[in-house]
Design goal:
It is a single chain. Helix 4 crosses helix 5. The strands form 2 sheets. Strands 3-4-5-6 form a 4-stranded mixed beta sheet, with helices on one face. Strands 1-2 form a two-stranded antiparallel ribbon. The protein has 11 helices and 6 strands. The protein is globular and about 60 Å long. The chain is α+β, with helices and mostly antiparallel strands.
C-alpha cells in the first residue's frame, strides 16, 4: 500500500513563514532612506542615483539599490533613470513637510528595543528604561512628533463625530499623558469655548497644562525653561 504524501495546504505555508521572517526588510529600507535624507534630497531636485548618492555622501551602487527597493515599495517612481516622490512620500517623508512622519525613523530606538526580544523575555528585564531622564530626552521627542502627525486627522475626526462646536459646546476636557496634546488641540480648534486641560509629566518632572487659547502653564522644577522649550516644540508641530 502506497502512503500518500502529506498535504500542507491547510497548514502554515512555508512562504508565509518566510515572508514573516523577512518582513523586517521594508522597515529597514524605509529607515535607511530617512536616515540618508533620500526623500528630502529628491524633493530638492536630486533625481538620479548618482546625484542622490553624491548629495547623501553615500556609495553610488548602494544608493541605487536602495532607490530601486523604494520604487518597489511604491515610495518612489522611476522614469528614464530619474526618480520622483510618490504622493505619500512627498507628504510624510520629506523633512520640510508640515506632515513629516519620519522623526521616529531618524534613529533606531524602536529597532534596538525589539531586537533582543528573546533575551528580554528570558530575563524579564526591559531593554531600556525610558523613565530615566537622559533616555527619555533621547527617545520621546521624536516619537511624540511622529505620533502628533499620525493622530492629527483622527483627532479631528473624533471631534466632528462627537459634535464638538456644533451639538456640544463649552466642553471641559482632561487629556492625561497628553504627549503633544494633539487630541485636546483638536477639541479646542473645533470649539473655542471648550476648556482643555492637557497634562503631561515632562523629563524635568514638571506638570504642564495647555488651555484652549494655547497658553502654557508649568509647575515644578525649571518651570520657565520647560515652558520655553514646550512653546517652541508646539510651534514647530503646528507650522
Amino acid at each position: 500500500m502506497t502512503r500518500k504524501a502529506p498535504s500542507y495546504r491547510r497548514d502554515a505555508n512555508v512562504q508565509q513563514l518566510l515572508q514573516m521572517h523577512f518582513s523586517f526588510a521594508p522597515a529597514r529600507i524605509l529607515a535607511a532612506a530617512v536616515q540618508l535624507n533620500v526623500f528630502s534630497l529628491i524633493a530638492a531636485g536630486h533625481k538620479t542615483g548618482a546625484k542622490i548618492a553624491q548629495a547623501a555622501a553615500a556609495n553610488e551602487r548602494g544608493m541605487r539599490m536602495l532607490l530601486e527597493a523604494l520604487t518597489a515599495l511604491k515610495l518612489l517612481a522611476k522614469r528614464n533613470g530619474a526618480f520622483r516622490l510618490t504622493p505619500p512620500a512627498r507628504r510624510f517623508l520629506v523633512r520640510e513637510s508640515p506632515d513629516y512622519f519620519g522623526s521616529m525613523l531618524e534613529h533606531d530606538h524602536l529597532w534596538e528595543a525589539w531586537t533582543p526580544l528573546a533575551e528580554v523575555i528570558r530575563s524579564g528585564q526591559p531593554y531600556r528604561c525610558v523613565e530615566q531622564k537622559d533616555k527619555a530626552e533621547e527617545f520621546f521627542p521624536a516619537l511624540v512628533r511622529s505620533l502628533h502627525v499620525m493622530n492629527r486627522q483622527p483627532a479631528q475626526r473624533v471631534a466632528r463625530v462627537l459634535g464638538v462646536g456644533v451639538r456640544r459646546r463649552g466642553l471641559r476636557v482632561l487629556d492625561v499623558a497628553c504627549g503633544s496634546g494633539v487630541w485636546g488641540i483638536a477639541i479646542a480648534e473645533a470649539d473655542r469655548t471648550a476648556h482643555v486641560a492637557a497634562h503631561g509629566v515632562n523629563t524635568e518632572g514638571a506638570t504642564v497644562r495647555i488651555d484652549k487659547n494655547g497658553r502654557i502653564y508649568v509647575r515644578g522644577r525649571n518651570a520657565e525653561a520647560v515652558k520655553s522649550r514646550l512653546r517652541a516644540r508646539l510651534d514647530t508641530m503646528q507650522t
